[in-house]
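ok trying again, last paste got cut off:
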Amino acid sequence: MIGMTGEVIECKEGSYLIHCHGETWNATSKSSLKVGQKVQVIELCGLVLDVEPIKE
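nice, full thing came through this time. structure:
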């Protein structure tokens, strides 16, 4: 999963839902993200992805 890209589909209090690899994942990020933003997976912690925004 590390290095894969996805898209933010929902923003919740301090966490996100990401569509990645055909599935919906819970995610966290050090950056502030918004719905529709493209992200890249940098770490997998159990069933939670740590992502960072892709610079466009």
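cool. The chain has a mean pLDDT of 95. The chain has no helices and five strands.
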